Amino acid sequence: MSDQPARRADLRIDLGAIRHNVEVLSQRADGARTMVIVKSDGYGHGAPAVARAALSAGADSIGAASLQEALQLRAAGIDAPLLCWLYSRDDDFGPALDAGIELSASSKAVLHRIAGTAAERGVVARVHLKIDTGLCRSGCPADLWPELVEEAAKLRADGQVEVVAVWSHLACADELDHPSIDQQAARFQRAYEQARAVGLDPIRHLANSAAVLTRPDLHFELVRPGIAVYGLDPVPQHGDHGLVPAMTFRSSVALTKRVVAGESVSYGHSWTADRPVNLALVPVGYADGVPRTLSGRMSVWLGGRRRPVVGRVCMDQLVVLCDDDEVAEGDEVVLFGPGDRGEPTAAEWADEIGTIHYEIVTGMYRPRVTRTVVGEAS
Ligand SMILES: *Cc1c(COP(=O)(O)O)cnc(C)c1O
Hints:
The radius of gyration is 24 Å and the shape is elongated. Strands 11-14-17-16-15-18-10-1-19 form a nine-stranded mixed β-sheet. It has an eight-stranded parallel β-sheet with strand order 8-7-6-5-4-3-2-9. The chain has helices at 15-29, 39-43, 47-56, 67-75, 94-98, 108-121, 145-157, 179-197, 209-214, 346-353, 357-362; strands at 10-14, 33-37, 61-66, 82-86, 102-105, 125-130, 161-167, 203-205, 222-223, 247-252, 255-259, 264-265, 271-272, 277-282, 299-302, 305-310, 318-321, 332-336, 370-374. It is an alpha/beta fold. Pyridoxal-5'-phosphate (PLP) is lined by residues 37, 39, 169, 208-209, 224-228, 234.
């Protein structure tokens, strides 16, 4: 990790880790195909690079949330099967259909818009019908589902759509044995049978990362891991799955100084030296993704060990306590990483401030933070 001088605020993205995690997940999926989810710019890691690495490691397809994200992946040269599922009312399906992007439909209204646009463009839309099995977010409510699948069967007979899949999303897959999982699975099965009953022959997909790792009975023909691809485990209580975090957040020491006992550090003077100490200034702050709520509750990896951050985390700076150790300007500082050398992890940050590692990594990439991609995409 000290292969290059650390920049001011840099996310090092290890595509070797992405490839490794995809291999672990494909092995777990045991025969089911793998759609790697790269929404929100690949959970902050960079969607096109992650997609390329994942596909070369054996993933079959890519999933993104919005139409815009899917189109950006096509523009970046990702030509694998690609699904997206989040639209607003004035989104135009035309460019996505031209680009061969597969579209989710949760209602007859959206299905008709997709089919109508496909007819105008002279293409057959590849559609995934989404059933709400209990997350109560997107997806078709069960009482409207029979009408939706009937309509889809008609449009299919007219040659306007191809129904690729019936799919749904789990609410509590990260809580092992949560009763909602089996209930959602039963509702999913029923929705699938209703689709078959009107003559459709779709594949099924339901499993997110947690279900890929813990519920082989719910893998069906395709699984949709996201967070685990990035090496963050959604079910650590289920054992070590051998995932490797792909993101390391680094900076370097900008200034060192020695202060006498009684001097206080940073806004609000929340920390006071009780002895003479060396301090190291690190030029990153909450504008670079370090939560201000970690003030007084975080450490960094610097000079071969963990050292506490003292005083408030500011917008652009934080201060590390180095006791009597000599650290130098330019020395690498690891704010979080895979954890294998002893550095903090994104999961530790999340636990400390009461959120999930998903939110930490997706919040890291900002205009003034750089990303350095290492490791081979293929
Ligand atoms: C985000 C998402 C996933 C992946 O979930 P993880 O918990 O990150 O594995 C799968 N399917 C849908 C519909 C999603 O929105």
